[in-house]
């Protein structure tokens, strides 16, 4: 069949990714067919294979894209104090993730649907991001400004706490995003015994 009117690679490719993101977040990866994605985009099902080899590759592309964007957007703060670096990390993490509810959701919920090879790539990227926070905590402990018994465990706990905001925060709620961020900064400082 002919390509849908107005379908072009630079337009259709991103629309396929966006449709897949919405459908995977709403229904789950396993429940979504390539036909459903094609229908949401307005192209024939066979046309999807011009943009992705299969649904697994599409999921991997979404998760890897999210992690690549996160890593490239994270501020480089090697010269600041551990306290300032920690606050910057917390604020960045919250702001970045609050703008990407669906990407965050599938990045955690759909890991189980990746092939072992794809899973390892995503896990490696996640470790790279986690290592940034752990480095801040280690530097703070070494400088005597944080009191942390296990930097790895504390890193995982902080990231889980910060990312969890995406499950409940909505614009127009009791607190603004800035108020939530300030409160979480205070909680994280207390969690690491910041002096």
Describe the fold and architecture.
Helix content is 67%, strand content 0%. The chain contains 9 helices and no strands. The chain has 2 domains: 9-52, Homeodomain-like (Arc Repressor Mutant, subunit A, Orthogonal Bundle); 58-191, Orthogonal Bundle (Tetracycline Repressor, domain 2). The chain is mainly α and 195 residues long. It is elongated, with a radius of gyration of 20 Å. Mean pLDDT is 91; it is low at 1-7.
Describe the main β-sheet briefly.
none
Quote the average pLDDT: 91
Number of domains as seen in the coordinates: 2
Large-scale geometry: elongated
Quaternary organisation of the protein chains? single chain
Structural class: mainly alpha
Q: If you consult CATH, what is the topology of the largest domain?
A: Tetracycline Repressor, domain 2
How many beta-strand segments? 0
- Overall radius of gyration: 20 Å
| CATH class group of the largest domain | Mainly Alpha
Protein name: TetR/AcrR family transcriptional regulator
InterPro entries: Homeodomain-like_sf (IPR009057), HTH-type_TetR-like_transc_reg (IPR050109), HTH_TetR (IPR001647), KstR2_TetR_C (IPR041490), Tet_transcr_reg_TetR-rel_C_sf (IPR036271)
Keywords: DNA-binding, Transcription, Transcription regulation
Pfam families: TetR_C_24, TetR_N
